[in-house]
Amino acid sequence: MGRPVCIVPSVLPADFARLGEEVAALQAAGVDRIQFDVMDGSFVPNITFGPDVIAAVRPHATVPFEAQLMVHNPDPMLGRWVEAGCELVIVHAESTTHLHRSLGIVHELGAEVGVALNPATPVSAVEHILDLVDMVLVMTVNPGFGGQDYLPSMGPKITELRALLDRRGLDLDIEVDGGIGPTTIAHAAEAGANWFIAGSALYRDPEGLQHAVDDLRARAEAAVPA
Ligand code: DX5
Protein backbone atom coordinates (compact mmCIF):
# COMPACT_ATOMS: atom_id res chain seq x y z
CA MET A 1 0.00 0.00 0.00
CA GLY A 2 1.47 3.38 -1.06
CA ARG A 3 1.59 6.45 1.18
CA PRO A 4 -1.78 8.15 1.80
CA VAL A 5 -2.58 10.72 -0.88
CA CYS A 6 -3.76 14.17 0.20
CA ILE A 7 -5.32 16.67 -2.18
CA VAL A 8 -4.74 20.15 -0.75
CA PRO A 9 -6.14 23.25 -2.46
CA SER A 10 -4.34 26.56 -2.57
CA VAL A 11 -6.97 29.26 -2.07
CA LEU A 12 -5.02 31.74 -4.19
CA PRO A 13 -7.47 31.41 -7.18
CA ALA A 14 -10.52 31.59 -4.89
CA ASP A 15 -12.89 34.59 -4.71
CA PHE A 16 -11.45 36.47 -1.73
CA ALA A 17 -14.70 38.41 -1.34
CA ARG A 18 -16.41 35.11 -0.40
CA LEU A 19 -13.48 33.21 1.18
CA GLY A 20 -15.58 31.63 3.94
CA GLU A 21 -17.99 30.12 1.42
CA GLU A 22 -15.04 29.08 -0.77
CA VAL A 23 -13.32 27.04 1.96
CA ALA A 24 -16.67 25.42 2.84
CA ALA A 25 -17.10 24.50 -0.84
CA LEU A 26 -13.59 23.02 -0.95
CA GLN A 27 -14.35 20.87 2.09
CA ALA A 28 -17.65 19.77 0.54
CA ALA A 29 -15.69 18.78 -2.59
CA GLY A 30 -13.66 16.34 -0.48
CA VAL A 31 -10.27 18.01 -0.04
CA ASP A 32 -8.12 16.69 2.82
CA ARG A 33 -6.57 19.95 4.01
CA ILE A 34 -6.48 23.62 2.87
CA GLN A 35 -3.33 25.66 2.28
CA PHE A 36 -3.05 29.42 2.70
CA ASP A 37 -0.25 31.05 0.67
CA VAL A 38 1.10 33.80 2.89
CA MET A 39 3.21 36.27 0.88
CA ASP A 40 4.94 39.42 2.18
CA GLY A 41 5.98 41.21 -1.04
CA SER A 42 9.66 40.69 -0.05
CA PHE A 43 10.40 36.94 0.02
CA VAL A 44 8.20 36.72 -3.08
CA PRO A 45 7.04 39.55 -5.42
CA ASN A 46 3.42 39.35 -4.30
CA ILE A 47 1.31 40.11 -1.19
CA THR A 48 -1.67 37.98 -0.09
CA PHE A 49 -3.22 37.90 3.43
CA GLY A 50 -2.47 38.00 7.14
CA PRO A 51 -3.54 35.79 10.06
CA ASP A 52 -6.79 37.71 10.63
CA VAL A 53 -8.11 36.53 7.25
CA ILE A 54 -7.36 32.90 8.11
CA ALA A 55 -8.97 33.33 11.55
CA ALA A 56 -12.08 34.75 9.85
CA VAL A 57 -12.57 31.71 7.64
CA ARG A 58 -11.53 29.07 10.23
CA PRO A 59 -15.14 28.52 11.44
CA HIS A 60 -16.26 27.71 7.85
CA ALA A 61 -14.42 24.37 7.61
CA THR A 62 -13.12 21.60 9.87
CA VAL A 63 -10.34 20.18 7.67
CA PRO A 64 -6.78 21.02 8.77
CA PHE A 65 -5.43 24.41 7.70
CA GLU A 66 -1.79 24.96 6.78
CA ALA A 67 0.03 28.25 6.25
CA GLN A 68 2.93 28.33 3.78
CA LEU A 69 5.00 31.29 4.95
CA MET A 70 6.59 32.95 1.94
CA VAL A 71 7.84 35.70 4.22
CA HIS A 72 11.28 36.89 5.30
CA ASN A 73 12.09 36.60 9.04
CA PRO A 74 8.96 34.62 10.02
CA ASP A 75 9.81 34.19 13.73
CA PRO A 76 8.08 37.28 15.23
CA MET A 77 4.68 36.22 13.84
CA LEU A 78 4.81 32.41 14.10
CA GLY A 79 2.31 32.42 16.98
CA ARG A 80 -0.24 34.40 14.97
CA TRP A 81 -0.72 31.61 12.41
CA VAL A 82 -1.28 29.04 15.14
CA GLU A 83 -3.73 31.35 16.95
CA ALA A 84 -5.55 31.84 13.61
CA GLY A 85 -6.29 28.11 13.47
CA CYS A 86 -3.46 26.58 11.40
CA GLU A 87 -2.60 23.04 12.50
CA LEU A 88 0.55 23.15 10.34
CA VAL A 89 2.95 26.04 9.74
CA ILE A 90 5.44 25.70 6.86
CA VAL A 91 8.67 27.73 7.07
CA HIS A 92 10.80 28.27 3.98
CA ALA A 93 14.41 27.13 4.44
CA GLU A 94 15.54 30.30 2.63
CA SER A 95 13.49 32.73 4.77
CA THR A 96 15.24 32.61 8.14
CA THR A 97 18.82 32.77 9.41
CA HIS A 98 18.14 30.27 12.22
CA LEU A 99 15.91 27.59 10.62
CA HIS A 100 16.52 25.08 13.45
CA ARG A 101 15.25 27.66 15.98
CA SER A 102 12.24 28.71 13.84
CA LEU A 103 11.06 25.12 13.51
CA GLY A 104 11.40 24.58 17.25
CA ILE A 105 9.30 27.67 18.00
CA VAL A 106 6.34 26.29 16.00
CA HIS A 107 6.45 23.00 17.92
CA GLU A 108 6.63 24.90 21.23
CA LEU A 109 3.43 26.66 20.11
CA GLY A 110 1.76 23.24 19.84
CA ALA A 111 1.42 23.09 16.05
CA GLU A 112 2.95 20.79 13.44
CA VAL A 113 5.81 22.24 11.42
CA GLY A 114 7.04 21.81 7.87
CA VAL A 115 9.98 23.08 5.86
CA ALA A 116 9.70 24.29 2.26
CA LEU A 117 12.38 24.30 -0.45
CA ASN A 118 12.42 26.69 -3.39
CA PRO A 119 13.38 25.03 -6.70
CA ALA A 120 17.06 26.07 -6.48
CA THR A 121 17.50 24.92 -2.87
CA PRO A 122 19.09 21.47 -2.54
CA VAL A 123 17.87 18.69 -0.26
CA SER A 124 21.18 18.97 1.59
CA ALA A 125 20.04 22.35 2.94
CA VAL A 126 17.57 20.60 5.26
CA GLU A 127 19.21 17.24 5.97
CA HIS A 128 20.17 18.35 9.50
CA ILE A 129 16.67 19.41 10.53
CA LEU A 130 14.57 16.59 9.05
CA ASP A 131 14.14 15.04 12.48
CA LEU A 132 12.49 18.27 13.62
CA VAL A 133 9.73 18.50 10.99
CA ASP A 134 6.43 16.74 10.34
CA MET A 135 6.53 17.14 6.52
CA VAL A 136 8.57 18.65 3.71
CA LEU A 137 7.27 20.88 0.90
CA VAL A 138 9.12 20.79 -2.42
CA MET A 139 8.16 23.77 -4.58
CA THR A 140 7.61 22.75 -8.20
CA VAL A 141 7.45 26.39 -9.33
CA ASN A 142 9.27 29.51 -8.17
CA PRO A 143 6.86 30.78 -5.51
CA GLY A 144 4.79 33.95 -5.76
CA PHE A 145 1.99 33.22 -8.23
CA GLY A 146 -0.53 30.59 -9.24
CA GLY A 147 -1.00 29.33 -12.80
CA GLN A 148 2.69 28.69 -13.51
CA ASP A 149 4.08 25.63 -15.34
CA TYR A 150 5.20 22.60 -13.32
CA LEU A 151 9.01 22.11 -13.24
CA PRO A 152 9.71 18.44 -14.18
CA SER A 153 13.33 19.06 -13.17
CA MET A 154 12.14 18.81 -9.54
CA GLY A 155 11.40 15.08 -10.03
CA PRO A 156 14.95 13.87 -9.15
CA LYS A 157 14.98 16.17 -6.11
CA ILE A 158 11.74 14.66 -4.78
CA THR A 159 13.18 11.18 -5.35
CA GLU A 160 16.43 12.13 -3.57
CA LEU A 161 14.47 13.45 -0.60
CA ARG A 162 12.23 10.36 -0.40
CA ALA A 163 15.32 8.10 -0.50
CA LEU A 164 17.02 10.13 2.26
CA LEU A 165 13.89 9.96 4.45
CA ASP A 166 13.62 6.19 3.91
CA ARG A 167 17.33 5.68 4.74
CA ARG A 168 16.86 7.69 7.94
CA GLY A 169 13.61 5.88 8.80
CA LEU A 170 11.72 9.20 8.83
CA ASP A 171 8.02 8.64 8.09
CA LEU A 172 7.36 12.08 6.59
CA ASP A 173 4.90 13.22 3.94
CA ILE A 174 6.32 15.05 0.94
CA GLU A 175 4.12 17.84 -0.38
CA VAL A 176 4.55 19.39 -3.83
CA ASP A 177 3.23 22.75 -4.91
CA GLY A 178 3.06 24.57 -8.23
CA GLY A 179 1.64 23.54 -11.60
CA ILE A 180 0.06 20.39 -10.17
CA GLY A 181 -2.78 19.20 -12.41
CA PRO A 182 -4.12 16.23 -14.41
CA THR A 183 -1.02 16.06 -16.66
CA THR A 184 1.64 16.56 -13.97
CA ILE A 185 0.43 14.97 -10.72
CA ALA A 186 1.52 11.42 -11.71
CA HIS A 187 5.09 12.60 -12.36
CA ALA A 188 5.34 14.03 -8.84
CA ALA A 189 3.68 10.97 -7.29
CA GLU A 190 6.03 8.54 -9.06
CA ALA A 191 8.97 10.62 -7.78
CA GLY A 192 7.84 10.14 -4.17
CA ALA A 193 5.40 12.92 -3.27
CA ASN A 194 2.04 12.09 -1.62
CA TRP A 195 0.53 15.46 -0.67
CA PHE A 196 -0.46 17.60 -3.66
CA ILE A 197 -1.24 21.33 -3.64
CA ALA A 198 -3.46 22.45 -6.50
CA GLY A 199 -4.80 25.91 -7.23
CA SER A 200 -5.74 26.69 -10.83
CA ALA A 201 -6.26 23.00 -11.72
CA LEU A 202 -9.13 22.82 -9.20
CA TYR A 203 -10.80 26.10 -10.16
CA ARG A 204 -10.50 25.75 -13.94
CA ASP A 205 -12.07 22.27 -14.19
CA PRO A 206 -15.24 22.74 -16.34
CA GLU A 207 -16.92 19.89 -14.44
CA GLY A 208 -16.44 21.63 -11.10
CA LEU A 209 -14.48 21.24 -7.86
CA GLN A 210 -15.76 17.77 -6.91
CA HIS A 211 -14.74 16.34 -10.27
CA ALA A 212 -11.33 18.06 -10.12
CA VAL A 213 -10.56 16.70 -6.64
CA ASP A 214 -11.69 13.15 -7.49
CA ASP A 215 -9.76 13.18 -10.78
CA LEU A 216 -6.49 14.38 -9.19
CA ARG A 217 -6.84 11.89 -6.33
CA ALA A 218 -7.41 8.98 -8.73
CA ARG A 219 -4.41 9.94 -10.87
CA ALA A 220 -2.14 10.30 -7.83
CA GLU A 221 -3.27 7.05 -6.20
CA ALA A 222 -2.64 5.23 -9.46
CA ALA A 223 0.92 6.60 -9.59
CA VAL A 224 2.09 6.54 -5.93
CA PRO A 225 4.69 3.73 -5.64
CA ALA A 226 3.32 0.75 -3.62
C1 DX5 B 1 2.72 29.73 -5.44
C2 DX5 B 1 1.87 29.06 -4.40
C3 DX5 B 1 1.08 27.91 -4.93
C4 DX5 B 1 0.14 28.28 -6.05
C5 DX5 B 1 -0.36 27.01 -6.71
O1 DX5 B 1 3.71 30.46 -4.83
O2 DX5 B 1 2.68 28.61 -3.33
O3 DX5 B 1 0.34 27.32 -3.89
O4 DX5 B 1 -0.92 29.01 -5.57
O5 DX5 B 1 -1.14 27.34 -7.79
P1 DX5 B 1 -1.15 26.45 -9.12
O6 DX5 B 1 -1.66 25.11 -8.72
O7 DX5 B 1 -2.09 27.21 -10.00
O8 DX5 B 1 0.24 26.41 -9.64
Describe the 3D structure.
The mean pLDDT is 97. The protein has eight helices and eight strands, in the order E-H-E-H-E-H-E-H-E-E-H-E-H-E-H-H. 32% of the residues lie in helices and 18% in strands. The longest helix has 15 residues, at 209-223. It has helices at residues 19-28, 51-57, 78-83, 99-108, 155-168, 185-191, 200-203, 209-223; strands at residues 6-9, 34-39, 65-70, 88-92, 112-117, 135-139, 173-177, 195-198. It is of the alpha/beta class and 226 residues long. The chain has an eight-stranded parallel beta sheet. Helix 5 runs parallel beside helix 6. Bound molecules: D-xylitol-5-phosphate.
Indicate the structural class.
alpha/beta
Associated small molecules: D-xylitol-5-phosphate
Q: What's the total helix number?
A: 8
Content of β-strand:
15-25%
| Distance linking N and C termini | 5 Å
**Uncertain spans:** none
Provide mean pLDDT, rounded: 97
Strand order of the largest sheet: 1-8-7-6-5-4-3-2
Fraction of residues in helices?
25-40%
**What coarse outline follows from CA principal-axis ratios?**
globular
**Element-by-element helix/strand order:** EHEHEHEHEEHEHEHH
> What is the makeup of the main sheet?
8 strands, parallel
- Radius of gyration in whole Å, from Cα? 16 Å
**Count of individual beta strands:** 8
